[in-house]
């Protein structure tokens, strides 16, 4: 699946047909807390498709380049709680 994510304009372009179930599952993985704020653009051709970020099973939010890790604090049980914010930009993603 080819996705172009524009975090500045809060748009998502999907070039091919996809089942809604698969799209929502992917968006929840790519944008766990933010996906509902984005607009889906359909019937589009993704322009400027270069150097896509290939997202496989091992990727998660701290590693996604469209997120900044802003504040981390330690919990008493040695867990860290981190807040994340979106970086402005356009990202080509291959899932």
The side-by-side strand order for the widest beta sheet comes to 3-2-1-7-4
- Main beta sheet, described? 5 strands, mixed
H/I helix tally: 1
- Estimate percent helicity: 10-25%
Order of helices and strands: EEHEEEEE
Total of domains: 1
Q: What is the CA-atom radius of gyration, in angstroms?
A: 14 Å
Strands, count: 7
The share of residues in extended strands comes to 35-45%
Enumerate the spans where pLDDT stays under 50 for 5 or more consecutive residues.
none
Distance between the termini: 5 Å
- Tell me the overall shape: elongated
> What's the average pLDDT?
84
Class inferred from helices and paired strands: mainly beta
Question: Helices and strands in order, then pairings?
Answer:
Elements: E1 2-6, E2 11-14, H1 20-30, E3 39-41, E4 53-54, E5 67-74, E6 80-86, E7 90-94
Parallel strand pairs: 2-3, 4-7
Antiparallel strand pairs: 1-2, 1-7, 5-6
